[in-house]
Structure formats: structure tokens, C-alpha cells
Predict the structure.
Amino acid sequence: MSHTLIKRGVAALTGAAAVLFVVPVGGAEARAETATVYVVQGVAGETVSIAVDGKAVDDAAAAKTIVGPLALTPGEHTLTVDGEGDTLDVEASFDVAAGASVDAVIHRQVDPTAAPIVTTYDNDLSKVAKGSGRVAVAHVAAVGPADVRVQGEVLFANIANGEVLTLTVPAKTYPVEIVPAATDGPSVLGPVDLPVAKSALTRVFAIGVAAEGTMDAIVQVLPLGVRGSGKSPTLIDAGSGGQAAELGLTEPSQGDSGLPPYLGVAALLAISAVIVIRRPARR
Amino acid sequence: MTARRTVVAAAALLAAVSTGCAASEPEGTPADSPTPTSTPASDAAREARVGPTQRLTFVPTRLTLDGVPAAATVERVDTLPSGVLGLPANSDHVGWWESGALAGEAYGTVVIAGHVDSATQGLGFFAHLLAIEVGQDVTLSGSGATQRYRVRAVHDVPKAELAVNTDAFAGDVRGRLLLVTCSGPFDRRTGSYAQNRLVYADPIGTAERTAG
């Protein structure tokens, strides 16, 4: 019954609210070498207050809230989470390097009766090929190791709580399902439609407690650059001397064999070894 | 789920190896040592671990062809404003098209082009490409990782066809390798060949870490 609710309740995954507060921590002179941090409230069904280095950044962060980007100085910082009663209280220190982009996620352990913990995820912001998107799936849920399947094919295999798998894919919308690792189901989340934007990092955090039927996903989208010109060549001009033609090496490939019929491979190697001595071309 | 914990040791080994290789990264976050699945809240936040099935990707810097003892240096090249693909000045080197896929990626085309010959340098490394047949292997390596490919198809196409039919450079395909050089008749007047030799190869498994 709750499985059905989960499958239907999360009909589509869209980017969660990414910017609630921008809290520069550290002086203006540090801005050039700060780290960028997002705090992700991944405790399903709970509202907590979040502070960084003792300063409140969100007094009432509902589940799936993403606080940031926060500009933090390189070095150690403290994240304090305060919820109703004591069971959700967490205080964790984490280190960030200059120029890094990091998600600090508050989330359940596999054992949902244990206190939530904080896991930091580095954001790979390197460029992707034009028309592609980088997908990073992070398991931060109270459920065992899982596979992420797209139309029956496992694209992210055997990912456990606190782990992440990253894959660059053509930008499009994918029907995604999370199932226990090495099984065909039943799904613990989905199927849901996950849009993967081009030139972007799409982070997916699987959160919740499977046994309580609260499995859900947080989607965060960060922009990426395009690697190279992004333009397909219209011409590849890769021979200006004609020596290969003179040797008969450039005869048409024999269907799928690619080998001129009257020259063995050894002969070709011998001939090319001689020519590499750089004799001037005839005529 | 029963075999899950047995890969934790392998993940730790991978983590140890990956921290020693500065430039070769699994796509995504750096690895960390495994931690217990259920612990009380501790003082230090945990760093995410890269899952044990994380695919490796890398910029290729060396290429080997079956039957050719020497490896070729792979440089980065890209499409020039004219639409021509830039190629290394040294005809012993080949060029990886940086707007295409990285070696090891699950999707897209890794394009590597090289001179068959040169007016000033004689035969280029990719004269060897003309002898490559279906079923032979090509290996790319870089940044401590290696990916092997098996040749699936060899074609000669008129050079002008690349501009009209751009499927060769497709990104929305399963990860594959395309090697390109020139072939067919050589026109002395223009100093160029009439055709391109296209060699398509499919990855064998995923990229693996190698020593060094």
C-alpha cells in the first residue's frame, strides 16, 4: 500500500528550491578563494533548524530543502542540526578546500533508529561534451544497497548508504527506478521521470525510510561548461604527402577486412619502417 | 544483496589506489575508506564514498594498435572555425577530439584522427590504421587508466560525406571509438586524399586502472 503511494506520489522529479539563503561567511578578501557549500536537508518527513559555524542559515528547513550556495572560507566548519527532541540533533565538522563545490547532506543511516549523520559530496564541475549531462546519484536513505534502473537497464549498480555513482549521459528525460541491488524489484522508489539537463550536473539524493514508505528523491541542478568547441568537424584532412598511396596502402578496404589483398601485415610493417627513415618522396 | 559487503574491501583498495593517481579520477567524487553502515552521530562529517561500480573515464594520451609494437602519443585537438579538424603537427602523434567523448564513457563517440602521411615527414603513425581489420584491438590509456576496444567495422567514405552525414560524431550512442585517417587516391595537385578511412570499435568491458 505505501509502495503504491510512493510510486504515484513522486510523479516527476524537478529541481528543488536551490537558493534560500546566500550567507557569505568570511571577509571580502577571502572571496576569491572560497568554497561553495550547499546544505541539503535529507531527513524525510522532518523539519530542522540548520546552522553553520553557529550562525543560523535556516530556522525551519523542511525535508528536501537545499540551503545555499554558501561561500565558506577554506578549512574546517561546523554544521549544527536541531530538530524536535534530541533524536535529530547532529553536530558535524567538515573541511572544504578553496575553489571546491560541496554538498553537505543531513540524512538517515541505513538503520533509521540511529541519529542522522552528515555526509559531504564533492561536486564534479568539470566540463561535459555538448548535449550531455552529468548525473550523480547519492544513496542517503534508510534502505539497503540499491540499483538504479532506466527502462530495465541498470545504469548505477550496487550503491549503498553514503555512496555516490556518477555517469555522463545524453541530455534527455529518463524513467528511473530504484530497486534493491541485483534484483528486478519491487522498486523502493519510482519509476519516476528524471530530466537530465544538458551542460549541467544533476544530483539525485535518494532519501527516506523504505520500511516507513517515505522514500523520496531530492534533485539539485548545477550548471557545467561544455568541453571543447562542441562543433563536429566537417572535414578531416589527414594526408598531405601521398606516400601511403604510392605504396598501395590506401586501396579501398575489402568490405570489413580493411586489408589490401596483395600485402601481408608483416610486409606493410617492413615497408613503413623503411619509409619512416624519411627518404624524400619520389617525383 | 548477499555479496554486497564483500566488495567493501575492494572499494577500500580502489580508494587507496585512486588517492595515489592525481589526474585519473573516477567520474565524480574522490573515494574514501568505507565506514560502518550504522554509527552514532560522530563529530566529523563523513566524506562520500565512490560506489564500487563507478565507471572510470579519462583523456587518452597513448594509443596502441594490434600488431603495431609502438604506441602513439595522443594530443588534444578540436574543430577549427573553418570546420576542419585540427591535427597534431607531428605526424607520429594522433589527435583526440576534445569535443567528443572521454575514453571509458558509457555514451558518445571517442574520436581519434591522425595523419596517414605528410609531405614533410613521410608516413604517419596512422598509416598503420590502414592495415587494421575487424576483430583486432585498439587500446587507449591515460592518467593511470586503460580502455580496450575491439574493431567492429572498417569503411572508406568520400571526405565530403563527413559534413553531410554527421552520425560519425554522434553523442547519443553507446560508448564507442572512431579512428580516422585518409585513404583512397591521392591528388598531387591539391596534396590531399579523396577519402577518409573510418574504423569503428566497441569497448571491451569498462576502463581499468593500470600501474603508473
Notes: Helices of chain A lie at 2-9, 243-246, 265-275.
